[in-house]
Amino acid sequence: MTLRINTLEFRNFRNYEHLRLSDLGEITVLVGRNAIGKTNIIEGVQLLTALSSFRHATREQLIRHGSESARLEASISDGNRLLDVALTLDSVSRRYQLNGKGKRPADLKGLVPSVVFTPDDLNLVKGSATGRRAALDALGSQVNKSYHTVRLDYEKVIRHKNRLLKEEADAALVEAVNEMVITVGSQLTCYRAALFARIIPPLVEKYRHISQNGETLSAVYIPSWDDRAEVGNYPALLDAAIQRDQAREALVRALRERAAEERRRGRSVVGAHADKIVFLLDGQDASLYGSQGQQRSIVLAYKLAEAAVVEELLEQKPVLLLDDVMSELDGVRRAALVEAMERGSQTFITTANLAYFDQNMLDRSNVVSLPI
């Protein structure tokens, strides 16, 4: 059965000295003027579910000004089990607990998964490749503990290599680090490509529904070592599965061929940190040729596809965290989002205007007016 949040309690978190929300149902609508703290609640729920913050905040930013520590708690149940998840933040640490016992974040990954959708996500298609990789990694870290570990290991090794390149270290040192780049980087690329392959079917189907059978959406994951993408030859990449041995061999070759370039530029140019994700509409790059409406439909479809993948892999529906996105969507896309909310996922949604919701939905929701 799917775990649901029954109660939330924050102490000295962001702008809240004390906040308690109880008897939470399927849909909680947090309504209030801008800058009142609605987004802080969404962030707090994400810290207790996905164990991360879409704001990438430091501990000092999360702790209420003038306080030495903050604590967030959630009471969670599936009807049979009752679990208490807590996070304590202070100036030196971030500590999680489950039923009063200390836990590593990796041990809690996937326990109560969540999918967050914010206005910044609407730049997913036309924004940087870094944002698209980060979105995929955030999902992968929730559904696969090994994915989370490999991603962290890769980030450490690539930082180390970049430091050596910047310092113009001996070539033998860089070559030694490249061994780790090959091992961990090829694994991360394979993890990402496999996860993205799972996303594509629900992504395409949900886009077809949102666009009302308009143009055809496809998408491709492109490793940094595959130069076919440089000339826009995306169709050749669409059905190309990536095997680990293939990835290792290709990465070895690319690192050797571009070693002088990396030396000259003082940074790594080959590896999982330089992989790309491209969305295509009728075979053309949607970041270049898609309208704003089409791009937003892709983002909405992607978020709904994320939720579908979480449910498929973890066999439970994720918590949906929707931060002030209704004001950014038109009527058709709002309707598609409301339809998704009504399929059983517990949802927290913030808004400054209840007019975006029909009365039937509001009647079934727990509407919380802020401040409380």
From TrEMBL:
<keyword id="KW-0547">Nucleotide-binding</keyword>
<comment type="function">
    <text>The RecF protein is involved in DNA metabolism; it is required for DNA replication and normal SOS inducibility. RecF binds preferentially to single-stranded, linear DNA. It also seems to bind ATP.</text>
</comment>
<keyword id="KW-0963">Cytoplasm</keyword>
<dbReference type="Pfam" id="PF02463">
    <property type="entry name" value="SMC_N"/>
</dbReference>
<feature type="binding site">
    <location>
        <begin position="32"/>
        <end position="39"/>
    </location>
    <ligand>
        <name>ATP</name>
    </ligand>
</feature>
<feature type="domain" description="RecF/RecN/SMC N-terminal">
    <location>
        <begin position="5"/>
        <end position="357"/>
    </location>
</feature>
<comment type="similarity">
    <text>Belongs to the RecF family.</text>
</comment>
<protein>
    <recommendedName>
        <fullName>DNA replication and repair protein RecF</fullName>
    </recommendedName>
</protein>
<keyword id="KW-0227">DNA damage</keyword>
<dbReference type="InterPro" id="IPR018078">
    <property type="entry name" value="DNA-binding_RecF_CS"/>
</dbReference>
<dbReference type="InterPro" id="IPR001238">
    <property type="entry name" value="DNA-binding_RecF"/>
</dbReference>
<keyword id="KW-0067">ATP-binding</keyword>
<dbReference type="InterPro" id="IPR042174">
    <property type="entry name" value="RecF_2"/>
</dbReference>
<keyword id="KW-0235">DNA replication</keyword>
<keyword id="KW-0238">DNA-binding</keyword>
<keyword id="KW-0742">SOS response</keyword>
<keyword id="KW-0234">DNA repair</keyword>
<dbReference type="InterPro" id="IPR003395">
    <property type="entry name" value="RecF/RecN/SMC_N"/>
</dbReference>
<dbReference type="InterPro" id="IPR027417">
    <property type="entry name" value="P-loop_NTPase"/>
</dbReference>
